[in-house]
Amino acid sequence: MHFLDDSLLPENQEKLVIQAAPYGPEWLPGDADDLPLTMDEHVQAAVDCYNAGATVLHIHVRELDGHGSKRMSMFNELIARLREAVPDMVLQIGGSISFAPEDEGSEAKWLSYDTRHLLADLDPRPDQVTIAINTSQMNIVEIMSEDDLAGTSIAKPEYYRAYRDMVVEAGPDFYLEHLDRLHANGIQPHFQLATLAQLETVERLIRTGVYTGPLVLNYVAIGGGFAGRHPADLIEFVRRTPDGAVLTIESSMRAVAPMNAMAIALGVHVRVGNEDNLWRRKGERMSSVEQVEQMVQIADAVGRDVANGQEAKRIYKVGEYYADTEETLARLGMVPNRRPGRRGFMLRDIDG
């Protein structure tokens, strides 16, 4: 993304889109005060986050025993109810479905490719499904301190090891097929990217015509094989992201607020919720709704407007696809592919 002299002035920035992730699939009841169990509680969590200022909802589903659900029927039921309760929210399904271990001593793992492909067939359809690109370690506890995990189930050695050793399986066999299925069903992929190498893979998918649509993505700074919390890495990822992309910053625990404060100042977007963070200050709990409210307050302090639901759908370009590679590159503000025999650095076409 290119920054002009006036790019940090809030009146020139796109309105802030706040993603809420209030379903915390890694946690068990008691780990957070606001984890929903019943379907009514799942819906109410969405309503409360929307009323606080969130316009994108990152969705997981929990069974009544407290474990993450793997049943597509529950996702279908929740989406149908959310369409009624929060019709202006962008509904985004978490592509892992559920990665939490079944019990102490079990692995924490993403579900099989075939199971994750079923998200493309949900009915009603979500607006988005998140998609990981390239297999990588996902050791979410590497970057967490004892204070972060105090009083939670992950503090137990069996669960800690399960999350320490977790791997995201997302090779080409997965993401090529998944992108095809999502496109066929009119569902927008929301790319979850942790490194510049993954961003470059997505650029190659665009330049070769595999993906022709809006580039909507999260920079996932959760450590352990994903990006960390170094501000320079955040800035570099923002710099390398195409001008026409929609970028959201995602971090973990008490780093969420400072990372998102930088995102708000830079003109990109933010994610909060108990899936990412449980704390305001050391030892002081913070609900998903309170985290959304905090983002609204930070945005107000720097003078940046917060998007409403319809504005978020426009910003996210929900429902858009492009005709071909050339249109995709142009819409994303990327230089065209090299023509045969063309030397030197590429420039955007000015003809027509």
UniProtKB/TrEMBL annotation:
Source organism (scientific name): Streptomyces boluensis
Alphabetized GO MF terms: 3-keto-5-aminohexanoate cleavage activity; metal ion binding
Entry keyword set: Metal-binding, Transferase, Zinc
InterPro entries, per the entry: Aldolase_TIM, BKACE
Coiled-coil region(s): none
Short name of any one Pfam family annotated for the protein: BKACE
Required cofactor names: Zn(2+)
Superkingdom, taxonomy of origin: Bacteria
Name under which the protein is recorded: 3-keto-5-aminohexanoate cleavage protein
Origin organism lineage: Bacteria, Bacillati, Actinomycetota, Actinomycetes, Kitasatosporales
Signal peptide: none
